From TrEMBL, chain A:
Pfam families: Trypsin. GO terms for biological process: proteolysis. GO terms for molecular function: serine-type endopeptidase activity. This is Peptidase S1 domain-containing protein. It comes from the Bacteria. The lineage of its organism: Bacteria, Bacillati, Actinomycetota, Actinomycetes, Micromonosporales. Residues 2-89 form the Peptidase S1 domain. InterPro entries: Peptidase_S1_PA, Peptidase_S1_PA_chymotrypsin, Trypsin_dom, TRYPSIN_HIS.
């Protein structure tokens, strides 16, 4: 458990609904079916909590049952610092993990991205852009993980408090074709781009608006510009936290370094991928 | 006071992975649903027995039907017997007529 978690649990009238995560310090993204199951509707009040017990009240702004996403507005200032989030597009072969556990004894899910984002018919009835994820832990049933953010796994990275790259949100499991009550070890996550596309009026920082597919003929310098713009937007968010007294200048410096390192690495990875594709 | 566990039917048949809470209701409040399901299952088994009672020199001399019931609920509201699941196991004894 980091001191700057960005993922949360949402509850309604004292009953847990499921996971979600802070897109910004004012907006939480979650799965619509987590709310529906508790009878939560648009404009209803909910409670947004972090694992340590701190919480803040929120209001359901919009629900898109087809895409199976819902947006919650945080009604007051968060009383805790939020780990900066950089959104990214997951690609086949990426290692992923999800930090949310429905219960303390439940495992933290990890695995590999099986396919690039592709069309997927959700139980909500819409064809959405989703990632197919292989999960290492064979649980047979992944109930309780909906709304969990899916982030790229980092090995030996910058450490606690450093930005995380979120690629999607867990919504569904694949069921065994014969034993229908049992899940395979494949999960589906709606991509961040698809999820936030459901909320046209939502004003988000620059890193979210740049989530569309990169231009086919993009140059290295254009790719660098895209990655560093995302980093600058995240740095601006952290500076706002400094102003609120939630983050120290030293943490700002460390996170700025980490964000710039990550933007540089993503540019190098992008260039390497395009080089090998030629 | 006897309680019985009920399951919620979800769109997608279990693909969505929200929390699955154990929900119980008072058994006596579901008594009519259970009685109706038993009567319907018995009627189906009996109709099957009548239609397959005799084939040439062979006849069905006994029938044993076993089935389970799963009570369903959705947001605390009983869905009704149309969505009640019942799994049949039928054992027939067939003997040659003397």
């Amino acid at each position: 458990m980091g001191k700057q978690d960005y993922w949360v649990e949402i509850s309604f009238r004292g009953m847990p609904c499921g996971a979600g995560f802070l897109l910004t310090r004012r907006h939480v993204l979650t799965a619509a079916h987590c709310l529906r199951r508790r009878g939560v509707k648009q404009s209803d009040g909910v409670v947004v909590s972090r694992d340590s017990g701190q919480s803040v009240e929120g209001t359901v702004l919009e629900v898109d049952p087809g895409r199976d996403v819902a947006l919650i507005r945080v009604n007051a200032k968060l009383g805790w610092a939020v780990q900066p989030v950089v959104t990214d597009r997951g690609e086949k072969g990426d290692e992923w993990m999800s930090p949310y556990r429905p219960e303390p004894a439940d495992p933290e899910l990890k695995g590999w991205v099986l396919t690039n984002a592709t069309g997927f018919e959700s139980s909500g009835g819409a064809t959405i852009e989703a990632l197919e994820l292989q999960v290492r832990q064979m649980l047979g049933d992944y109930s309780g993980y909906s709304g969990s953010p899916v982030q790229l796994e980092r090995h030996g990275g910058p450490g606690l408090g450093a930005p995380v790259a979120v690629i999607g949100m867990l919504i569904e499991q694949d069921l065994h074709r014969v034993r229908r009550a049992e899940a395979t070890n494949v999960l589906f996550a709606i991509t961040v781009a698809e999820a936030i596309g459901a909320f046209e009026d939502l004003q988000l920082p620059a890193q979210f608006s740049r989530l569309g597919p990169p231009p086919v003929a993009e140059t290295v310098s254009e790719a660098a510009g895209r990655h560093f713009a995302g980093a600058r937007a995240s740095i601006a968010e952290i500076k706002a936290m400094v102003d609120e007294g939630l983050v120290s200048d030293m943490e700002l410096t460390e996170q700025t370094k980490a964000l710039l390192r990550m933007a540089g690495q993503r540019t190098i990875d992008w260039a390497g991928g395009h080089e090998s594709a030629r | 006071m006897i309680r019985v566990e009920v399951v919620a039917l979800e769109p997608g048949g279990g693909r969505q992975i929200s929390r699955q809470d154990r929900v119980t209701e008072l058994l006596r409040e579901r008594a009519l649903d259970i009685e109706a399901a038993i009567a319907e299952a018995a009627r189906i088994a009996g109709t099957g027995l009548v239609s397959s009672h005799q084939h040439g020199d062979w006849q069905v001399t006994s029938l044993e039907a076993r089935f389970g019931l799963t009570l369903t609920a959705e947001a605390g509201v009983i869905v009704g017997k149309a969505s009640t699941e019942a799994c049949f196991e039928i054992t027939l004894t067939v003997q040659r007529r003397e």
